[in-house]
Each structure stands twice: as structure tokens, then as C-alpha cells.
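[audit] Reproducing an earlier prediction to check determinism. Same input, same settings, fresh worker. If the C-alpha cells differ from the archived copy the diff job will pick it up downstream; this log only records the rerun itself.
[audit] input (215 residues):
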Amino acid sequence: MRYDLVIFDNDGVLVDSEPISNRLLAGYLTELGHPTSYEDSLRDYMGAAMHRVHDLVLERTGRRLPGDFDDVFHGRVFAAFARELEPVPGAVEVLEKLAADGVAYCVASSGSHERIRVGHRKTGLDRWFDDGRIFSSQDVGRGKPAPDLFLYAAERMGVAPARCVVVEDSPLGVQAAVAAGMDVYGFTGMTPAAGLAGATRLFGDMGDLADLLVS
């Protein structure tokens, strides 16, 4: 293994949640009078913490989102997760291989701790992630593209940034990993390769990741 720690993004990398959450986010923003397409949501918010939604809407319109926006949105997302959410194809196999080889890994997500755990319970990925392996933008002051979350995860896991690799599928996540001084493997399952400029390596099949990490 070329690295001492593999840091996974969650949404779109471990759980196939990006289509669900961005569809619902676009719909809810439009419902509130902020017309947003699914493509707009992917472009502006994929991989971001919720504060980015609030910040961009305020910046663009001068209007604040309702105080219960996050609670209503997450309620809709969790209900949809219960019906639709699946693990990203190949993610289970990668985790099995890392665990079998004794390679340290964790998840560092822009999503809340509750969102991460709801998704992992639904998909069965909770067996691979105890509390000590789960890090959220809630744990730090700034979300991606700031490097804070990845640096925090590395510190808590006891690994120097230069010995970490991040697995990401969003432009904001790639920027955050690069800013943290970490290698980053860009997963092109949903994001075109051009959108992940700056990644150390690009790949399109999660099932290939374990072999790529040692090659």
C-alpha cells in the first residue's frame, strides 16, 4: 500500500446519494422561490456542507432561507434514503480489501453525522465504520473546499497528511484534499474528469480502487 490512511468522501463515493439529495435540494429551493435545476444543484452544491447553500442563496438573492430549511430538507432526504439509497457499486469490496489488508481508513464528509449514519445503516456500510472512523464538516469550522476536515481526520487517525490519500467525486472535495497536501483519487462515477482537475489520479469504477492504491 502506498498510503497509511485512505480517507473516503461519503456521498457519491460510498453511498449513491448524490442523485437523490440534489434532486430534492433543487426541488425544495425552487419551491421556495429560488429556481434551481438538478444540474444547477450538482454544479453549485455537490460535495458541499449545508452552509454553502445558505451562503450562495443569500449572496445571489439577498434573501435568507427559512430557519427550518435544514430540518425540512434532511427530513425529505432521509425519507428518500429509506426508499432508494444503495451503496456505490464496488464500495463494499474496497472496504473488505482494506480491512483484510489492515489498511487504516475513515470517512470525512460534508454531510452531518446523522446523515452519514442514516445512509450507512440503510446500505449496511455501518459494519465498516465505528464512531472513530467517521468525521463530518460539523466537527470543523469550515467545510470543503477548505482543507480543515481532511486535516482533522488525519490528525484524529494519527497519520501525517503526506501519507494520506483522499477518495473524492466532487470538485470542492478535490480542492480540499489538494489544499490539505494529500493525494486525491477522483472518482468519475458522476463528475466528468474535467471537473476533477487537480486530482492525483482519476478512475471510473469503485471496484478498481483497491488495486489502484497499490499500483
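[audit] rerun output stored. Observation attached for the diff report: DSSP finds nine helices and six strands in the chain.
[audit] end
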